[in-house]
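User: Structure please.
Assistant: Input sequence and predicted structure:
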Amino acid sequence: MKKLLIDPGVCGFRTLVTASFNEEEDEVTLHVDTGCQHVREMMDALGGTFDSFALCLSRPGQNALYQFAAEHFPPHAACPVLAGIVKCAEAESGLALPRDASFTFEE
């Protein structure tokens, strides 16, 4: 099981993603604890279990999370929560190494 804490910045909706992988089914189950109403609604609508390859190895913006967000989220292309959810699923599924990522503004 992998856990990833996402701090998206100014909105303050810190998100904790917990992923567990079912190797027999090649599925990853995600639990997403967040203050963001839009992310909660997305996870309620899509459920928590995904085909690992379809979720993690799709082209940018083409998996179920991004497709849902494109139709239902307010315009906010820079939200890092979706990428973080996929990153946690990748690491748990063995499709990527569990390494931190960050954005840093420089003046």
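The longest helix spans residues 81-93.
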